[in-house]
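=== Structure Prediction Worksheet ===
Name of assembly: unnamed complex
Input type: mixed (protein and possibly other molecules)
Chain count: two
Listed entries:
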Amino acid sequence: MNPVERRPDVELCPGGPMLLRGDHVVLDDEGNRHPTKRPVSAVCRCGKSASKPWCDGTHKVLPPKLRP
Amino acid sequence: MAGRAPGYRTPVTDLPKPRGPLSDAVLAALRDLPAASVPRIEVAPESADDAALTLWTLHELSYGGFEDVDDGAESEPELVRVRRQLERRLEDELLARWPGVPEADLAADFFDWVAGHDGPSLARYVQADATREQVLDLMRVRSIYHLKEADPTTWVIPRLPVAAKAALVELQFDEYGVGDPARVHSQLFARGMEASGLRPEYGAYVDEAPLEVLEQNNALSMFGLQRRLRGAAVGHLAAFEATSSMPSRRMAQGLERLGFPEELVGYYLEHIEADAVHEQIALRDICVTLVREEPLLERDVWFGAWACLDLEDRTARRLLETWGAAA
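=== Predicted Assembly ===
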């Protein structure tokens, strides 16, 4: 049986967002504060989300080269 | 009923209208329990509609049940036998249409595989073209699933190895409003229905659901209820979540365009961000983790994912056809 590893608190999804577990305040690049609203949040890494700083899945329609 | 929260557990889940001799026989047997025992039911389904409605009804005995049906009906051997026959028929039909496991890496290629699936989109139609009446039609048939959203997948939890199990609970916890009943996703939809002048009770509109919608629900229940199909259940989940964020934004825009109340718009807004999280957890922490532990299940994960996309295509095509809109 494989040993069970502790779940990561921060998870970088290849080509997609950063998952962030727990309560945090995210400061965006314009200085606005965004408290997390759910147990796991997806933070946009492609820069194209319409819900920034949160991911809205937009990275999936970008050409692979433009994905994080 | 005054003072009662809307939604799945409110007490109107009337039995549906029969769609042929098999559903007629099964509905009669359900009504007669427990006074009369269930007779041998040898009737063959007359049509796909008859089969699908019967299976939906039998599955429902394992969810909220029906107002006037004995709770023991769920485990009546003859009804279980009919359910198994109908499930086998549905699974065989799905397998016959399935092109098979794609040449793709589950972890690396799944989202592109989903994106490459080119089906008609109800969300695009709602965003730009649908009328108010068409959206009400859509909400009525979507309610068959949305008012018990996440429930079919909850059955899978005890059947997964520990890491995938913990991840599925993390996802479901969010679906179930992080423990707050007012934020449970099915309740958000129930409030949206009620605010839009629709009935929020589970099953209120099942008589209007076309075959394709019943089959969507039946496949999901079948994947959830059978341990054997746990791979298909989580594959279905991953595909469902991966086709939700952006379509939810289009739905919200369409509902705003048509002046629908904020409660219904809010249901879709919630899913933009929630499902951008869920699609990652569903693929990476549930499906990939499961397949690492149980490699033989990879085939079923792909099958379930394909079934989700295929069944949604069929529903979209059917509704767009009914509305006279090009698919």
